[in-house]
# Entry
Amino acid sequence: MVIVAGFIDLDPNERAAYLVARQRAIERTRAETGCREYVFSADSSDPGRVRVFEVWEREEDLDAHLALLSAAAPSPKIVSESSRELLRYHVTGVGPLRSA
# Structure
């Protein structure tokens, strides 16, 4: 299993439009082979930050998704992205979260 997590920082006045514009791509990605979770959401504390969280069954599934993104025609830029950090995590075990 592979997790991608991170953030994209935008002009706070453009964040809502960015999230709306991403919705169709999110729905398409969720239908891709191996995609278990694919979420872009507004950060609850930072008005310009979008949180990204993805879960993929296999590394190959994520790589296929990234290849699709690279091959896609560029979409019109509707926002000014000021920074981005997306990290890939390789998961070797999964279990329920237990409360103390």
Notes: The longest helix spans residues 15-30. The first strand starts at residue 2 and ends at 10. The two ends are 26 Å apart (CA to CA). The CA atoms of residues 35 and 91 lie 15 Å apart.
